[in-house]
Amino acid sequence: MKIIEEICQRFEQDNATSFANLFTENATYFDSLYGTYKGRQAIKAFHEKCHKEATAYKFQPVTVIFQDRDHAAFEWNFAFVSLMPQSKGKKITLKGASFVTLEGGKILSYREYADSIALLLAGNVPDKKILEFYRRKYPNI
């Protein structure tokens, strides 16, 4: 369970270098809201962005679905306090699941799945922006 705990603990911390060092140089990170980031430097920039938009992160594993030397899957609870203008100071919570592939003890692939639309609604994002997000995420609908 070490890698799961490391992901959660390091994401909570405002230290993008420490978080990015969990990943291989060519890792892929898929965030259910922001999309895909390729490479350690892009993952580092993503983490920095997150900590500019929110604070007081709590990323807690709830259920380990599977874990071996090369893979992990877990359900989680996520909470933060928004720093965004439309929801500044509001505590927002989310539940989801993540799937991790490891290579040489580092994360090669991280994929998470959560209800991004509910997250946007909780953050008081205007309907027009949510619709734009939905159309970008699901262009064939």
Number of helices: 5
Radius of gyration equals 15 Å
Strands in their spatial order, largest beta sheet: 2-1-6-5-4-3
- The second-level CATH architecture is Roll
What percent of the residues sit in helical stretches (DSSP H or I)? 25-40%
Task: Count the domains.
Answer: 1
Number of E strands: 6
Report the uncertain regions: none
N-to-C CA distance: 38 Å
Largest sheet: number of strands, sense, barrel closure: 6 strands, mixed
Defining traits:
141 residues, alpha+beta, globular, 6 strands, Nuclear Transport Factor 2, Chain: A, single chain, six-stranded mixed β-sheet, 43% strand, 34% helix
How do the helices and strands line up, and which of them pair or pack?
Elements: H1 2-12, H2 16-20, E1 23-31, E2 35-38, H3 40-53, E3 54-67, E4 71-82, E5 91-103, E6 106-114, H4 116-122, H5 127-137
Parallel strand pairs: 1-6
Antiparallel strand pairs: 1-2, 3-4, 4-5, 5-6
What's the short version?
The chain has helices spanning 2-12, 16-20, 40-53, 116-122, 127-137; strands at residues 23-31, 35-38, 54-67, 71-82, 91-103, 106-114.
